[in-house]
Amino acid sequence: MAKIKRNKNGTRKDVIISKAAKLFREKGYNATSMRDLAEHVGVEAASLYNHISSKSEILQEICFKVANEFTSHIEEVYASSTNSIEKIEAILRFHIRQMVDNYEEVYVNDREWKHLSDPYLSNIQNQRRSYRQRIAQIIEEGIRKDEIKSIDAPTAVLIMLHAVSGIESWHRSKRKIPGALLEDNMIMILVDGLRR
Q1: Which pLDDT value is given to residue 106?
Q2: What's the CA gap between 139 and 89, in Å, rounded?
Q3: Among 85, 101, 113, 90, which Cα is nearest to 167's?
Q4: CB 108: neighbour CB atoms within 10 A?
Q5: SS3 annotation, 85-148
Q6: Which of 15, 84, 117, 193 places its Cα 20 to 30 Å from the Cα of 40?
Q7: Which CATH class is domain 55-194?
Q8: Tens of pLDDT along 36-58?
Q9: To the nearest 10°, the Cα dihedral for 7, 69, 110, 24?
Q10: pLDDT grade, residue 1 (50/70/90)?
Q11: Residue 70's pLDDT is what?
Q12: C-alpha distances in angstroms, 63 versus 108, 133, 137, 160, 188?
């Protein structure tokens, strides 16, 4: 029976989660079975249960890992002494880099979270709502300080986050610009549109 090969700095569980994120993105959470995952990892399905208890545990791990990284980053940015435009730029750059570099997990967190069950579902919904509200607060603060145009902050947040989630099509493109250039272009378009 084959063993799960670990990455240099990761555990076997990390390998399973990484492979599961790829499958969940490609097939969807509901359409992916533990047998599919075992095949993708290269082990018997029973071997997976030595490292994880269920498919739902994998989804929880993916969603909360990503959500916690975004939450930690936005809290750092929010507490910084930079102006509102710089805060929005820092948040968007982080979000874009995550979408470029950790595409599978970010995609699953963005699209498959609704398959979580409570209390995890309620928790992730609260984290997502709080994240959007935090960005809106920064925009509103920028409007009050005359750093940002007078716009509807929740609408601006919706547009920015949907634009970043659109990086999915960049991943599928046969002719794509480098990730760093994509990031700079998106920042120019999204942040400059806010500038007073």
Answers
A1: 95
A2: 11
A3: 101
A4: 25
A5: HHHHHHHHHHHHHHHHHCHHHHHHHHHCHHHCCCCHHHHHHHHHHHHHHHHHHHHHHHHHCCCE
A6: 117
A7: mainly alpha
A8: 888 888 888 777 888 888 899 99
A9: 20
A10: very low
A11: 96
A12: 7, 19, 24, 20, 29
| Token pair recorded at residue 53 | 């208890």
Q: What is d(CA 77, CA 88) in angstroms, rounded to the nearest whole number? A: 9
What is the H or E stretch that residue 75 is in?
helix 55-79
CATH no. of 12-50: 1.10.10.60
Give me 120's structure tokens. 């995890």
Do residues 4 and 51 lie in contact, with contact meaning Cβ atoms separated by under 8 Å? yes
Q: What type of residue is 147?
A: E
Chain centroid to Cα 50, Å, comes to 27
141: its two tokens: 């603060």
Structure tokens at 118: 């409570």
At 4 the pLDDT is 55
Q: What six digits make up the tokens of 171?
A: 């991943």
Tokens of 74: 């936005």
Domain spans, the chain: 12-50, 55-194
Beta bridge partners of 195: 148
Q: What distance in Å separates the CA atoms of residue 18 and residue 178, rounded to the nearest whole number?
A: 23
